[in-house]
């Protein structure tokens, strides 16, 4: 079976990359593009042709981010009444300028993202929009690109029959995912389908950049040159529908203005408030911006200032988009980590498929959680997958040291004294011929970490080698850009042991004939997504600890045999 999968890998290769590139490089949409939730899902599962794939220009990370940012700056977000007519809405909005793209979605009401072809469109909207009067309340007159569509008296914009097709911005429930995976013919195809279903859509990425742009407008009241940049899974290629929106307030554009040599005897500099450390300055900036978001930011609710964290942040919900947002400042290293993961994800399509599948498996098995704590995080899991792929023979992806050796002068990046340099031009990276199938990689991942000596060894993706542990933490993964830091410092012994046990159980389970043979009941990856904890019919964690692992997996096998394996019915997020 493994050989069969290896043979099919080349056929799938184009399809995989195509699916990824399609959403990431953002294909252009026509102005009145309409798509139902169903057709959007179908679109996600489809692939582009080989010709289209070969014509896609592979852009460096920062160029891609710049394009998305610029796109967002030409966009507005409009809350629409439920009976809005799409046709009339577009007609109305196009009075302000040509529309490049428009889509509708639901989040506490119906919203439209309208992207004009020029920024003039946004200015025209600002000129025509009015400040509302609330009969019994007062309002902060802060004008933003979050607007409401009002129906005028003659009913010009609305029709009694809603005609807006909304796109889903959330991940499908796990049981639906399991059902769809089970219909696939191979485990390789299951991993690819899972990635295509769960990954961020083009529209969701647009919305993320738009929210950053709206936040930037608030922060710009104090820092006109600032930029709010998304990082983490919103941009690193591993984001799943429903993942949080990590942003950082970039003030480098301010200090970047260099003193010109004018030949004059004098020059002027700004007087600035001083603080004892950069951390204190970051805390004070975030505190003020957090206050502005709280007081003036329409749709921003539940603001929490978490300023004493290792990386100070302001957390809030952006209701119009439905995103849980984390705003940080002075966080260039995290941006570099995002770029590195993006690059790894682009080098070989199997990287993303494996990361998505492992993350989904980990979520279902309770290895990761939405709640901060001693569990493994998605970031940690991704590092584990990267390291595992570097350790394949031949390696599927290169070490960070190798990527650094390929860097050109423009790639030079020193942040807080740490060398964060690595190549940005993907075409310079030559991969070795590794033909492992995804099925084989998934199984080997579980075997690898099920048997890894975490008690003695530290994981180092810079060298692609395990090393002796420099400190006593249960799990030690060296931060690739800050070698003195452990990215998995939060993980305790219990959670690590749980991960190891689940890897062992999943490795065993994956090799069972019931799981390997195609059938109508969950099989292959779908079977691995049935939570082992749930087996034993509702006798949850307390019972789990009492049972021997083999009893639990035997229970799962039994339920698979009888076709009763059910996922937890919750969402995958
Ligand atoms: P999800 O939000 O879970 O989908 O993944 P994510 O990659 O966005 O992770 P998270 O939101 O927890 O963190 C955002 C980014 O911050 C990550 O992608 C990393 O770049 C960075 N980051 C997170 N945790 C750590 C850590 O422990 N150490 C370091 N150096 N960076 C981290
Ligand atoms: Mg995140």
Automatic annotation (TrEMBL):
Cofactor(s) required, per the database record: Mg(2+); Mn(2+)
Residue ranges of every copy of the RL domain listed in the record: 61-129
A Gene Ontology molecular function term of the record: poly(A) RNA polymerase activity
Annotated region described as Disordered, given as residue ranges: 536-573
Stored Gene3D superfamilies: 1.10.1410.10, Beta Polymerase, domain 2
Keywords from the named record: Magnesium, Metal-binding, Transferase
BP-aspect Gene Ontology terms: RNA 3'-end processing
This protein's GO CC annotations: mitochondrion
PANTHER family reported in the protein's UniProt record: POLY A POLYMERASE CID PAP -RELATED (PTHR12271), POLY(A) RNA POLYMERASE, MITOCHONDRIAL (PTHR12271:SF133)
Descriptive protein name: Mitochondrial poly(A) polymerase
